[in-house]
Sequence to fold (236 residues):
Amino acid sequence: MSRQDIDRFSLGSAFVGVADQVSSTSSLRPVSTDTLDLRVLELLTARLCHELSGPIAAINNGVELLADEPVLADGQIDPDFMQDAMALVGDSASRAASRLQFYRFAYGFGHGGLMVGSAPDKLATRFFEGTRIACNYGDSLRVMPLDWQRLACNLLLIGAEALSRGGSLVLAAGPAGISVDAIGEFAALSRETTAALTSRSVQAYFTGLVAETLGRRLVSTEELRRVQLSAVALTG
Fold:
């Protein structure tokens, strides 16, 4: 993704290979890089809050259930009810923690920084646990520098967006670069993801920026039940 595209607030297409599917944005009024940086920050924050709102709301529901715990005829607390409420709180808290840890690495890990907490493959595995998406974090990725694994984790998030009905994500690294295959029924990237900076598509834009810092560009190919996202070497 070129600096020219960034400076004019034009994403064009987040992925090379699908640009012809969307309209040109060259007529958009130029804005400063600082303004764009602020907008990206706002949208990433909105995305993160959205991702955490579900499990946090479930924790609150569990706490409310415990506060209103029913009392049996003999004055004792229903043990089954207590167990169910505690399970709800525990599962939701675990899910929120997993999401926070994953996003801290995907969004907050600095170039050349030190890893804090679990390895990226463990973060990714826990992030997708209990969802309709299975994640295969290839061994070839696990030995790569953390900057590249950060890019890989952001690619996983885009791949997950393509699997509205669930499926599998297969992440791998090869001579051509990093790629993730999103495989599932009706697997497809939305027009928002490929074309525009919105609260739903900011993940693609941000991933393009991360790829650019590593001398890579994003490429996508789509076929029946499969979307492949790759970060390949910049050309020209």
Remarks:
- The beta strands are 133-137, 167-174, 177-183, 216-223, 226-233.
- The chain has eight helices and five strands.
